Amino acid sequence: MKRFFLSILIATAGFGLSAQSAQKITELIATEKANYGNASWLIAVQTNLAGDTASDEEAFEILVENDYIRQKPSSTGEKLIPSAGDEIKIKDFALLCTKAYKIKGGLLYRLTKSPRYALRELKAMKVISNDAEPDSIVSGKQMIHILNTCGYSMEASK
Amino acid sequence: MKNKKLFLIISSVFTVLTSLHALDFGGSIGNYTKIGSPIAPGNDEFKNFSLKQEEILTVWLRQNINPTTFIALEADARFRSTRRELGKSDTNDTDVIIPDLKVLRLTKRIPLKQNTMMFNIGRFYFSDLTATVLSQPADGLNLSLDLKSFYAKVYANYTGLLNAQNVTILNKADSKYLLDPKKSWQCAASYANFGAQFELPYIFANQTISAEFLASLGFDGIEKGSADYNRMWGTLGLNGFLHKNLCYVLTTTFGSQLNSDLSNLTKLSFMLLPGYKSMVISLSGIYASGDQNGLKPFKGFTSQTAVNSIDEPEYSGLVKGGLSLSIKPVKQILLAASGNAVFSYPDSEIKYKGTEAGVNANLQVLSDLNINAGISQFFAKEANESKGTFTLTAALSF
User: Fold this and answer.
1) CA B275 from chain center: how many Å?
2) What is the C-alpha separation between A63 and A22, in angstroms, rounded?
3) Inter-CA distances, B121 with B10, B104, B376, Å
4) How near does any CA of chain A get to the CA of B367, in Å?
């Protein structure tokens, strides 16, 4: 718990947040089921692909343009998925993190670049608990914690 | 017909599991190679070396039922080849596929305010405080209660359905149980074990006191040869820190076959943790009683090799002590080296038998690819009793 609050604190400081963005982090912490827009905002700000004043939708578009997120037609062909409003699974958020921090990963991650092996990589790095279910929807708190722990881990391994 | 039923049951279980949302699965493919110096001494040509080779496929599943309950499964199949001498065929050589179910466990965590109660049922790994008496999978259950200042665990298990190709249980000397190494599956000897473990963590000056009682009742199951072989063990343990980077573990176990005999196994280890590249320096000693000082030869439950010599003795009638060191020079590599003096102590006379030395390197090439290589050599006092082995394992997780 201490570690979690510390990561929130460091996240807030690390993001160098404006009042508007501090409000955004507060909202994220309260988000039980995060969506691609929420995740995109965190990743885009962390990687400096977007400023912290960007909206979730803008951040999502930036990640799609930068090949962090690959959209494909839905089964009915009416829209592209995922969209910014779709809930994001922990394995898909793990893939965004491995891309954001350019984590090379294990042999199977290198071969497949799939969410399954991205999650495995973050479990091996002890960033995500081994108990985490790949298909569970990630919460806002979890996203901030994962992103920051990933950051410490990568710094420590340099 | 039987096979069809089994197939239907397995497919239904798998279908139910995969249709559930919270399923995680994975596995690994691996290799194990062990080359040993010639069994018949005096001829060190490579063609006379022995070989044990295994290719192993492991799969695992984990199904979360709710936040406090899950089912875990781990099964493997290994293609095992053994050659007594590489250069010629022998009737004892084997090439056999060995399937095994290592884990099929339901775990339930019961939160009790600040404390935790855990319940496990199914097939899973059991170990006693010493990890020398009992150390193997078995079918059973355990219930543990962690009150922070007091820890207790009770367990019961049955061994008669295990695959004896992967676990060896020590039977009485005249047991009729015989393992056929050419079979894919042979049930292990039938024993019912009952144990209770207690611990008082950091009860005084950072020291932890523990105690365990284990009873084993033998009877004829699918395999015969263990009837009426009843044993019990009582263990006392003490461990803790003597200094901020020096800790120790002491255990002493008294065993009995319920016919007024008493045996003893005592283990003491000191571990120095200098705080440099995960270095651990250990000084350890083991005494396993023989027929001396009113004691009888010690005998555990799970077979374990005490010394990597030609005769590969169990923990019985011996004294062994030495140093070991491990270090992680870089994150991906763990190096270890050890040296032990070995004495046989079958009766009132203690005799120097030889020195065992080994080095091991573990390389985590990538997060899912591991390679481990080790060399060990037993330098025997008596001529022709020395033995060397080289082991290599590699595993890729998927």
Assistant:
1) 28
2) 22
3) 19, 8, 38
4) 5
Q: What are phi and psi of B139, to 5 degrees?
A: -95, 120
Mutation to test the A interface, candidates B278, B368, B369, B371, most A Cβ within 10 Å? B368
Element (H, E) at B58: strand B50-66
**pLDDT higher than 80, residue B41:** no
Higher per-residue pLDDT: B10 or B158: B158
Residue B180 clears pLDDT 90, i.e. is over it: yes
Q: Does B22 touch chain A (CB under 8 A)?
A: yes
Q: How confident is the model at residue B343 (pLDDT cuts 50, 70, 90)?
A: very high
**Residue B311, pLDDT score:** 84
Q: Does A136 touch chain B (CB under 8 A)?
A: yes
**Which ranges constitute the DSSP H helices of chain A?**
2-14, 19-29, 36-46, 56-65, 90-100, 107-112, 115-124, 140-157
CA distances from A41 to A86, A93, B117, B223 (A): 14, 12, 40, 63
- Output the pLDDT for position A157: 77
Contact of A36 with A84, CB cutoff 8 Å = yes
CA-wise closest residue to B231 among B290, B300, B129: B300
Q: Are B235 and B300 a contacting pair, CB within 8 Å? A: no
Q: Any CB–CB contact under 8 A between A17 and chain B?
A: no
Test A106 with B21 for CB contact under 8 angstroms: no
Residue B339's identity, in one-letter code, is: G
Distance in angstroms (rounded) separating the CA atoms of residues A41 and B46? 63
pLDDT at B91: 87
| C-alpha span between A118 and A112 (Å, rounded) | 9
Provide ipTM, 2 decimals. Answer: 0.83
Average pLDDT over residues B273-295: 96
In this prediction, residue A21 carries a pLDDT of: 75
Cβ within 8 Å, pair B368-A120? yes
